[in-house]
Amino acid sequence: MNNSDLTDEQLTRAAQQGDLNAFEQLILRHQQPLFAFIYRMVNNYNDAEELCQQTLIRAWEKIKSFQGKSSFKTWLFRIGINLTLNHQTRTRQPEPLNELLPADLAHQPEHQFQKQQKQKLISAALQQLPADQRLALTLIVYENLTYKEAAKIMGKSVRAVDSLLVRARARLRTLLEPARKKGII
Amino acid sequence: MKTMKCSKVRKNLSRYLDNELSETGRLAIELHLKTCADCRNQFAQLESDQKLLKSLPVPEIPPYLNVRTLALIRAPKPAPALPRLVWQTAVSLLLLAGIGLGILLGSGLAQNTNSSPELAALNSEPSIEQIFTLENGGK
Protein backbone atom coordinates (compact mmCIF):
# COMPACT_ATOMS: atom_id res chain seq x y z
CA MET A 1 0.00 0.00 0.00
CA ASN A 2 1.23 3.46 -0.91
CA ASN A 3 1.84 5.94 1.94
CA SER A 4 -0.56 8.40 0.35
CA ASP A 5 -3.39 5.88 0.85
CA LEU A 6 -2.82 5.63 4.58
CA THR A 7 -4.69 7.62 7.20
CA ASP A 8 -2.93 10.09 9.49
CA GLU A 9 -3.29 7.60 12.34
CA GLN A 10 -1.58 4.84 10.36
CA LEU A 11 1.18 7.18 9.22
CA THR A 12 1.71 8.45 12.75
CA ARG A 13 2.06 4.90 14.08
CA ALA A 14 4.60 4.11 11.34
CA ALA A 15 6.50 7.33 12.08
CA GLN A 16 6.60 6.35 15.75
CA GLN A 17 8.44 3.19 14.65
CA GLY A 18 11.03 5.43 12.96
CA ASP A 19 9.55 5.38 9.43
CA LEU A 20 10.71 8.72 8.01
CA ASN A 21 8.84 8.15 4.73
CA ALA A 22 5.59 7.97 6.67
CA PHE A 23 6.49 11.20 8.42
CA GLU A 24 7.27 12.80 5.07
CA GLN A 25 3.74 11.97 3.97
CA LEU A 26 2.41 13.68 7.09
CA ILE A 27 4.54 16.74 6.27
CA LEU A 28 3.17 16.85 2.73
CA ARG A 29 -0.38 16.75 4.05
CA HIS A 30 -0.05 19.39 6.73
CA GLN A 31 2.75 21.77 5.77
CA GLN A 32 0.51 24.12 3.74
CA PRO A 33 -2.09 24.83 6.46
CA LEU A 34 0.67 24.93 9.08
CA PHE A 35 2.71 27.45 7.12
CA ALA A 36 -0.35 29.59 6.31
CA PHE A 37 -1.37 29.58 9.95
CA ILE A 38 2.09 30.57 11.23
CA TYR A 39 2.46 33.21 8.53
CA ARG A 40 -0.82 34.82 9.62
CA MET A 41 0.38 34.80 13.19
CA VAL A 42 3.78 36.42 12.50
CA ASN A 43 3.14 38.28 9.21
CA ASN A 44 6.72 37.68 8.06
CA TYR A 45 7.62 35.17 5.35
CA ASN A 46 11.11 34.23 6.57
CA ASP A 47 10.09 33.93 10.20
CA ALA A 48 7.11 31.80 9.19
CA GLU A 49 9.35 29.51 7.14
CA GLU A 50 11.80 29.05 9.97
CA LEU A 51 9.06 28.46 12.54
CA CYS A 52 7.32 26.00 10.24
CA GLN A 53 10.55 24.02 9.82
CA GLN A 54 11.21 24.09 13.55
CA THR A 55 7.68 22.82 14.18
CA LEU A 56 8.08 19.90 11.79
CA ILE A 57 11.49 18.97 13.17
CA ARG A 58 10.19 19.17 16.74
CA ALA A 59 7.22 16.98 15.74
CA TRP A 60 9.61 14.32 14.40
CA GLU A 61 11.73 14.47 17.54
CA LYS A 62 8.66 14.13 19.77
CA ILE A 63 6.56 11.78 17.64
CA LYS A 64 7.03 8.90 20.10
CA SER A 65 5.37 10.95 22.84
CA PHE A 66 2.25 11.55 20.70
CA GLN A 67 -0.50 9.53 22.37
CA GLY A 68 -3.21 9.95 19.77
CA LYS A 69 -5.59 11.73 22.16
CA SER A 70 -6.08 14.41 19.52
CA SER A 71 -5.59 14.32 15.76
CA PHE A 72 -2.06 14.60 14.40
CA LYS A 73 -2.98 18.00 12.94
CA THR A 74 -4.15 19.33 16.31
CA TRP A 75 -0.96 18.07 17.96
CA LEU A 76 1.21 19.57 15.20
CA PHE A 77 -0.56 22.93 15.45
CA ARG A 78 -0.04 22.98 19.20
CA ILE A 79 3.69 22.63 18.67
CA GLY A 80 3.53 25.39 16.06
CA ILE A 81 1.54 27.66 18.39
CA ASN A 82 4.00 27.19 21.25
CA LEU A 83 6.99 27.99 19.05
CA THR A 84 5.21 30.94 17.42
CA LEU A 85 4.12 32.49 20.71
CA ASN A 86 7.62 32.07 22.16
CA HIS A 87 9.06 33.69 19.05
CA GLN A 88 6.65 36.61 19.32
CA THR A 89 7.54 37.40 22.89
CA ARG A 90 11.17 37.74 21.79
CA THR A 91 10.69 39.78 18.62
CA ARG A 92 9.78 43.26 17.59
CA GLN A 93 6.53 45.15 17.99
CA PRO A 94 4.18 45.15 15.00
CA GLU A 95 4.20 48.06 12.60
CA PRO A 96 1.82 50.83 13.74
CA LEU A 97 -1.27 50.85 11.57
CA ASN A 98 -1.45 54.59 10.98
CA GLU A 99 1.96 54.48 9.28
CA LEU A 100 0.47 52.25 6.63
CA LEU A 101 -2.38 54.60 5.81
CA PRO A 102 -1.71 56.65 2.67
CA ALA A 103 -2.10 60.39 3.20
CA ASP A 104 -4.52 60.81 0.33
CA LEU A 105 -6.16 57.97 -1.52
CA ALA A 106 -6.71 60.13 -4.61
CA HIS A 107 -2.99 59.94 -5.28
CA GLN A 108 -3.00 56.16 -5.37
CA PRO A 109 -4.05 55.43 -8.95
CA GLU A 110 -3.21 51.77 -9.35
CA HIS A 111 -5.94 49.32 -8.49
CA GLN A 112 -3.38 46.61 -7.73
CA PHE A 113 -1.55 48.94 -5.39
CA GLN A 114 -4.80 49.69 -3.55
CA LYS A 115 -5.53 46.01 -3.23
CA GLN A 116 -2.08 45.35 -1.79
CA GLN A 117 -2.45 48.33 0.51
CA LYS A 118 -5.74 46.96 1.76
CA GLN A 119 -4.26 43.52 2.40
CA LYS A 120 -1.30 45.06 4.17
CA LEU A 121 -3.63 47.02 6.43
CA ILE A 122 -5.72 44.02 7.33
CA SER A 123 -2.61 41.94 8.08
CA ALA A 124 -1.17 44.76 10.16
CA ALA A 125 -4.45 45.12 12.05
CA LEU A 126 -4.35 41.42 12.85
CA GLN A 127 -0.82 41.88 14.21
CA GLN A 128 -2.06 44.60 16.55
CA LEU A 129 -4.34 42.17 18.34
CA PRO A 130 -3.08 40.54 21.52
CA ALA A 131 -1.57 37.12 20.70
CA ASP A 132 -4.39 35.04 22.20
CA GLN A 133 -7.09 37.03 20.36
CA ARG A 134 -5.16 36.76 17.09
CA LEU A 135 -4.70 33.06 17.64
CA ALA A 136 -8.41 32.46 18.26
CA LEU A 137 -9.42 34.53 15.23
CA THR A 138 -6.88 32.84 12.95
CA LEU A 139 -8.01 29.36 13.96
CA ILE A 140 -11.69 30.16 13.46
CA VAL A 141 -11.56 32.36 10.36
CA TYR A 142 -8.76 30.73 8.37
CA GLU A 143 -8.60 27.18 9.68
CA ASN A 144 -12.41 26.95 9.87
CA LEU A 145 -12.21 25.17 13.19
CA THR A 146 -15.14 24.89 15.55
CA TYR A 147 -14.89 26.65 18.92
CA LYS A 148 -14.43 23.25 20.54
CA GLU A 149 -11.51 22.37 18.27
CA ALA A 150 -9.91 25.79 18.74
CA ALA A 151 -10.34 25.48 22.50
CA LYS A 152 -8.57 22.12 22.44
CA ILE A 153 -5.64 23.46 20.43
CA MET A 154 -5.35 26.54 22.62
CA GLY A 155 -5.76 24.65 25.86
CA LYS A 156 -8.71 26.88 26.84
CA SER A 157 -12.43 26.48 27.44
CA VAL A 158 -14.99 27.05 24.68
CA ARG A 159 -16.31 30.00 26.67
CA ALA A 160 -12.83 31.56 26.80
CA VAL A 161 -12.44 31.15 23.03
CA ASP A 162 -15.85 32.78 22.51
CA SER A 163 -14.85 35.70 24.71
CA LEU A 164 -11.51 36.11 22.88
CA LEU A 165 -13.31 36.19 19.54
CA VAL A 166 -15.81 38.83 20.67
CA ARG A 167 -12.95 41.03 21.91
CA ALA A 168 -10.82 40.39 18.83
CA ARG A 169 -13.62 41.41 16.48
CA ALA A 170 -14.45 44.55 18.46
CA ARG A 171 -10.76 45.55 18.52
CA LEU A 172 -10.34 44.83 14.83
CA ARG A 173 -13.30 47.07 14.02
CA THR A 174 -11.73 49.93 15.99
CA LEU A 175 -8.33 49.38 14.39
CA LEU A 176 -9.72 49.43 10.87
CA GLU A 177 -11.98 52.42 11.45
CA PRO A 178 -9.48 55.06 10.15
CA ALA A 179 -8.93 53.03 6.97
CA ARG A 180 -12.68 52.65 6.58
CA LYS A 181 -13.15 56.40 6.94
CA LYS A 182 -10.55 57.01 4.25
CA GLY A 183 -12.34 54.59 1.98
CA ILE A 184 -9.38 52.24 1.73
CA ILE A 185 -11.34 49.24 2.90
CA MET B 1 -43.91 37.66 19.62
CA LYS B 2 -41.33 39.14 21.97
CA THR B 3 -37.77 38.69 20.75
CA MET B 4 -34.46 38.55 22.60
CA LYS B 5 -33.02 41.70 24.20
CA CYS B 6 -30.50 43.62 22.05
CA SER B 7 -27.72 43.17 24.66
CA LYS B 8 -28.15 39.41 24.61
CA VAL B 9 -28.28 39.34 20.82
CA ARG B 10 -25.08 41.36 20.47
CA LYS B 11 -23.30 39.08 22.89
CA ASN B 12 -24.14 36.18 20.61
CA LEU B 13 -23.59 37.74 17.19
CA SER B 14 -20.02 36.45 16.97
CA ARG B 15 -21.18 32.90 17.68
CA TYR B 16 -24.03 33.34 15.23
CA LEU B 17 -21.55 34.43 12.57
CA ASP B 18 -19.42 31.35 13.23
CA ASN B 19 -22.43 29.06 13.19
CA GLU B 20 -21.80 28.06 16.79
CA LEU B 21 -25.32 28.50 18.15
CA SER B 22 -27.88 25.82 18.75
CA GLU B 23 -30.83 25.69 16.37
CA THR B 24 -33.03 27.49 18.93
CA GLY B 25 -30.40 30.17 19.54
CA ARG B 26 -29.90 30.72 15.83
CA LEU B 27 -33.63 31.10 15.20
CA ALA B 28 -33.99 33.53 18.10
CA ILE B 29 -31.22 35.74 16.69
CA GLU B 30 -32.69 35.60 13.20
CA LEU B 31 -36.06 36.63 14.50
CA HIS B 32 -34.54 39.55 16.39
CA LEU B 33 -32.50 40.71 13.42
CA LYS B 34 -35.65 40.89 11.32
CA THR B 35 -37.12 43.49 13.64
CA CYS B 36 -34.08 45.39 14.99
CA ALA B 37 -32.20 47.65 12.59
CA ASP B 38 -29.41 48.46 15.11
CA CYS B 39 -28.54 44.84 15.70
CA ARG B 40 -28.84 44.15 11.99
CA ASN B 41 -26.33 46.91 11.41
CA GLN B 42 -23.99 45.44 14.04
CA PHE B 43 -24.17 42.08 12.39
CA ALA B 44 -23.55 43.58 8.95
CA GLN B 45 -20.35 45.15 10.32
CA LEU B 46 -19.19 41.82 11.72
CA GLU B 47 -19.89 40.14 8.40
CA SER B 48 -18.05 42.86 6.53
CA ASP B 49 -14.94 42.47 8.75
CA GLN B 50 -15.08 38.73 8.33
CA LYS B 51 -15.12 39.21 4.56
CA LEU B 52 -12.08 41.48 4.81
CA LEU B 53 -10.19 38.86 6.79
CA LYS B 54 -11.15 36.17 4.32
CA SER B 55 -9.98 38.36 1.43
CA LEU B 56 -6.34 37.90 2.46
CA PRO B 57 -4.65 35.53 0.02
CA VAL B 58 -3.46 32.15 1.22
CA PRO B 59 0.31 32.53 1.68
CA GLU B 60 2.35 30.42 -0.71
CA ILE B 61 4.42 27.76 0.94
CA PRO B 62 8.20 28.21 0.46
CA PRO B 63 9.50 25.93 -2.31
CA TYR B 64 10.86 22.55 -1.26
CA LEU B 65 10.06 23.17 2.40
CA ASN B 66 9.43 19.44 2.92
CA VAL B 67 12.69 18.46 1.19
CA ARG B 68 14.75 20.93 3.19
CA THR B 69 13.07 19.94 6.44
CA LEU B 70 13.74 16.24 5.81
CA ALA B 71 17.36 17.02 4.97
CA LEU B 72 17.68 18.73 8.36
CA ILE B 73 16.08 15.75 10.08
CA ARG B 74 18.42 13.31 8.29
CA ALA B 75 21.55 15.41 8.90
CA PRO B 76 23.84 13.87 11.53
CA LYS B 77 23.39 15.54 14.84
CA PRO B 78 26.45 17.21 16.39
CA ALA B 79 27.77 15.49 19.50
CA PRO B 80 25.81 16.66 22.50
CA ALA B 81 27.56 19.45 24.31
CA LEU B 82 28.74 18.78 27.84
CA PRO B 83 26.35 20.12 30.42
CA ARG B 84 27.32 23.58 31.52
CA LEU B 85 28.03 22.52 35.10
CA VAL B 86 30.49 19.86 33.94
CA TRP B 87 32.61 22.16 31.83
CA GLN B 88 32.42 25.00 34.33
CA THR B 89 33.74 22.66 37.03
CA ALA B 90 36.46 21.39 34.70
CA VAL B 91 37.59 24.94 33.86
CA SER B 92 37.60 25.91 37.54
CA LEU B 93 39.65 22.85 38.47
CA LEU B 94 42.14 23.55 35.68
CA LEU B 95 42.48 27.14 36.83
CA LEU B 96 43.03 26.05 40.42
CA ALA B 97 45.60 23.48 39.31
CA GLY B 98 47.37 26.18 37.26
CA ILE B 99 47.47 28.54 40.19
CA GLY B 100 48.72 25.77 42.49
CA LEU B 101 51.43 24.80 40.04
CA GLY B 102 52.41 28.43 39.66
CA ILE B 103 52.76 28.83 43.42
CA LEU B 104 54.81 25.63 43.68
CA LEU B 105 57.15 26.62 40.88
CA GLY B 106 57.45 30.13 42.20
CA SER B 107 58.42 29.00 45.69
CA GLY B 108 60.88 26.42 44.24
CA LEU B 109 62.50 29.09 42.10
CA ALA B 110 62.79 31.39 45.05
CA GLN B 111 64.54 28.67 47.06
CA ASN B 112 66.85 27.92 44.16
CA THR B 113 67.68 31.59 43.77
CA ASN B 114 68.76 31.72 47.39
CA SER B 115 70.77 28.52 47.30
CA SER B 116 72.58 28.79 43.95
CA PRO B 117 75.38 31.34 43.66
CA GLU B 118 75.41 30.94 39.86
CA LEU B 119 71.78 31.91 39.58
CA ALA B 120 72.26 34.69 42.05
CA ALA B 121 75.10 35.97 39.89
CA LEU B 122 73.00 35.76 36.76
CA ASN B 123 70.16 37.62 38.38
CA SER B 124 72.26 40.39 39.87
CA GLU B 125 74.15 43.21 38.21
CA PRO B 126 77.82 42.26 37.58
CA SER B 127 80.26 44.08 39.80
CA ILE B 128 83.04 46.26 38.33
CA GLU B 129 85.56 43.62 39.32
CA GLN B 130 83.60 40.95 37.46
CA ILE B 131 83.40 43.08 34.32
CA PHE B 132 87.10 43.76 34.60
CA THR B 133 87.87 40.04 35.02
CA LEU B 134 85.64 39.17 32.00
CA GLU B 135 87.29 41.83 29.82
CA ASN B 136 90.73 40.46 30.73
CA GLY B 137 89.75 36.92 29.68
CA GLY B 138 89.16 35.76 33.19
CA LYS B 139 92.79 36.27 34.31
Describe the structure.
- The complex is a heterodimer of chains A (185) and B (139).
- Chain A has helices spanning 8-16, 20-42, 45-62, 72-90, 111-128, 131-141, 147-154, 158-181.
- Chain A is an all-alpha fold and 185 residues long.
- Chain B is mostly helical and 139 residues long.
- Helices cover 72% and strands 0% of the residues of chain B.
- Chain B has helices at 6-17, 23-35, 37-54, 65-74, 84-115, 117-123, 128-135.
- Chain A binds chain B through residues 20, 23-24, 27-28, 31-32, 35-36, 39-40, 45, 48-49, 52-53, 56-57, 60, 118-119, 122-123, 126, 137, 140-142, 146-147, 162, 165-166, 169, 172-173, 176, 185, and chain B through 11, 14-15, 18, 20, 45-46, 49-50, 52-59, 61-62, 65-66, 68-70, 72-74.
Number of helices of chain B: 7
Estimate the global geometry of chain A from the Cα principal axes: elongated
Rg calc of chain A: 19 Å
Q: How does the major sheet of chain B shape up?
A: none
Query: Count the strands of chain A?
Result: 0
Helix content of chain B: over 70%
Largest sheet of chain A: none
Query: Which oligomeric form is depicted?
Result: heterodimer
Alpha carbon gap, first and last residue of chain B: 137 Å
Residue-averaged pLDDT of chain B: 82
Helical run tally of chain A: 8
- SSE succession of chain B: HHHHHHH
How many distinct beta strands of chain B? 0
- What class would the helix/strand composition of chain B place it in? mainly alpha
Structure characteristics:
heterodimer, A: 185 residues, mainly alpha, 8 helices, B: mainly alpha, 7 helices
How are the elements arranged and paired?
The complex is a heterodimer of chains A (185) and B (139).
Chain A: H1 8-16, H2 20-42, H3 45-62, H4 72-90, H5 111-128, H6 131-141, H7 147-154, H8 158-181
Helix pairs in contact in A: 1-2, 2-3, 2-4, 3-4, 4-7, 5-8, 6-7, 6-8, 7-8
Chain B: H1 6-17, H2 23-35, H3 37-54, H4 65-74, H5 84-115, H6 117-123, H7 128-135
Helix pairs in contact in B: 1-2, 1-3, 5-6
